[in-house]
Specification:
It is a single chain. The chain has 274 residues and is an alpha/beta fold. It has a single domain, classed as Orthogonal Bundle (Phenylalanine Hydroxylase). The protein contains twelve helices and six strands. It has a four-stranded mixed β-sheet. Strands 1-2 form a two-stranded parallel sheet. The longest helix is centred in the middle third of the chain and has 34 residues. The structure holds 7,8-dihydrobiopterin and fe (iii) ion.
């Protein structure tokens, strides 16, 4: 596993923005709640415009989560939110400087700790940022952690992913990408947004759910694990989960190690043509 020092150097080389110099060995930092008025304003703009969309386009599990968390009209104080979350589902938030290595990320999930970036995008980046920032991590991921079924699923994901990453890291990451980040889910005969990457994106949330050009594909765990993705464009396929329990069952009942073994040397699938 990579050391904090080596990871810090890699991130600096890639031009990533987080300050990894002050990380603990599990890649956490203090949140340090000292945001400027300008940052509070950016949060409010993002949160206001996104909330208008999520009301219409987000799956109930997310909206119920927003309700349970209470207002998110200012930059969240992670300790305050953790107190609430602990009571609801036993989860807590930890602050991180940005992307962290996958094994460390999975380890936090396995312990019911959700890593949230402690800095926010700038005013010029409302529509897109390539790295996860606090708006993506918090607004996208945290509401659903108040829901017991999702809370359990994320912990199970962390536990399983830790042991599978050696076998096939790419396949495990695709599963996360196409469900937790960009998954859609059926609700009363309609397709709704489920993934955090969608919840935190103004344009892709609308595209994925409403555009006739969005390519909706029924969820199938093996197909998901074989399908590539690009992080900096709209997704060329969105997998539609029939229900939350279909995701959990798919995960619990599939032999993920066997799936990895079966497909890891096979050609990958192109999302545009599945
Ligand atoms: N780090 N902060 C942060 N947030 C993520 O979503 C994240 C990460 N590191 C690794 C990672 N995701 C990927 O490996 C996912 O596939 C899990
Ligand atoms: Fe994310």
């Amino acid at each position: 596993e990579i050391s904090v020092q080596d990871y810090a150097r890699e991130c600096a080389d890639k031009g990533l923005r987080g300050n990894y110099a002050v990380c603990r060995s599990d890649f956490t930092v203090e949140q340090e709640y000292d945001y400027t008025d300008a940052e509070q304003e950016v949060w409010r703009i993002l949160s206001d415009r996104q909330t208008k969309l999520t009301k219409r386009l987000a799956h109930k599990s997310y909206l119920d989560g927003v309700e349970a968390l209470g207002l998110i009209d200012r930059i969240p104080d992670f300790d305050e939110v953790s107190q609430r979350l602990r009571k609801l589902t036993g989860w807590e938030l930890v602050a991180v400087p940005g992307l962290i290595p996958a094994p460390a990320f999975f380890d936090h999930l396995a312990e019911r700790r959700f890593p949230v970036t402690n800095w926010l995008r700038k005013r010029e980046e409302l529509d897109y940022i390539v790295e996860p920032d606090m708006f993506h991590d918090f607004f996208g991921h945290v509401p659903a952690l108040t829901q017991p079924a999702f809370a359990d699923f994320m912990q199970m994901y962390g536990q399983k992913a830790e042991s599978l990453i050696e076998l096939g890291g790419d396949m495990i990451e695709r599963l996360y990408w196409y469900t937790a980040e960009f998954g859609l889910m059926q609700e009363a005969g309609q397709v709704k947004a489920f993934g955090a990457g969608l919840m935190s994106s103004f344009s892709e949330l609308q595209f994925a759910v409403e555009s006739p050009d969005a390519h909706h594909v029924p969820f199938d765990i093996e197909t998901v694990m074989r399908t590539t993705y690009e992080i900096d464009k709209f997704q060329r396929a969105y997998f539609v989960l029939p229900s939350f329990s279909a995701l959990k069952d798919g995960f619990e009942k599939s032999d993920l190690a066997a799936i990895i073994a079966r497909w890891k040397d096979a050609p990958v699938l192109d999302p545009a043509t599945i």
